[in-house]
Amino acid sequence: MNGSNEMTLSFSARSENEAFARIAVAAFVSQLDPTLEELNDLKTAVSEAVTNAIIHGYESDPSCKVSIEARIEGDSVSITVSDNGRGIEDLELARQPLYTSKPELERSGMGFTIMENFMDRFEVSSMVGGGTRVAMLKRIESKKALYN
């Protein structure tokens, strides 16, 4: 593959669209021929980011939109999941394992930890009242990705 390839996806903040987002990103990344483990890592990280946007960013308001941008360059894929929701008041606290602002929903509080551990690079930025942006990068080590 010469140069880069990219896609943008925007969808309603509905919990049933989390699976759609995960599958769409997996289909896009499949051109790099990732291993099953790499693909599962990507799908899980996307699922966590999208779920956070829907539940925490928009408080499950289906009239709002979640956006995903994905870009393949060489053997790496970068994925950005963003919302224009309420933002995160205390980002440092939110990144702590087992912390959840929605214990009544039986959330595990492991979303950011999972994303950080499954990806090669992970960054989150947020502004109260201005939304949240999760940027992730994963290097795909397949022979197809290495020789493109």
UniProtKB/TrEMBL annotation:
Gene3D superfamilies in the record: Histidine kinase-like ATPase, C-terminal domain
Transmembrane spans: none
Q: What is this protein called?
A: Anti-sigma F factor
Family in the record: Belongs to the anti-sigma-factor family.
**Role of this protein:** Binds to sigma F and blocks its ability to form an RNA polymerase holoenzyme (E-sigma F). Phosphorylates SpoIIAA on a serine residue. This phosphorylation may enable SpoIIAA to act as an anti-anti-sigma factor that counteracts SpoIIAB and thus releases sigma F from inhibition.
Query: Which Pfam families does this one have?
Result: HATPase_c_2
GO BP field: asexual sporulation; negative regulation of sporulation resulting in formation of a cellular spore; sporulation resulting in formation of a cellular spore
| Native source organism of the sequence | Paenibacillus prosopidis
* Gene Ontology MF term list: ATP binding; protein serine kinase activity; protein serine/threonine kinase activity; sigma factor antagonist activity
Determine the domain of life of the protein's source: Bacteria
Give the UniProt keywords, A-Z: ATP-binding, Kinase, Nucleotide-binding, Serine/threonine-protein kinase, Sporulation, Transferase
Its EC number(s):
2.7.11.1
Q: Which reaction does it catalyse?
A: L-seryl-[protein] + ATP = O-phospho-L-seryl-[protein] + ADP + H(+); L-threonyl-[protein] + ATP = O-phospho-L-threonyl-[protein] + ADP + H(+)
Q: Which residues form the Histidine kinase/HSP90-like ATPase domain?
A: 37-142
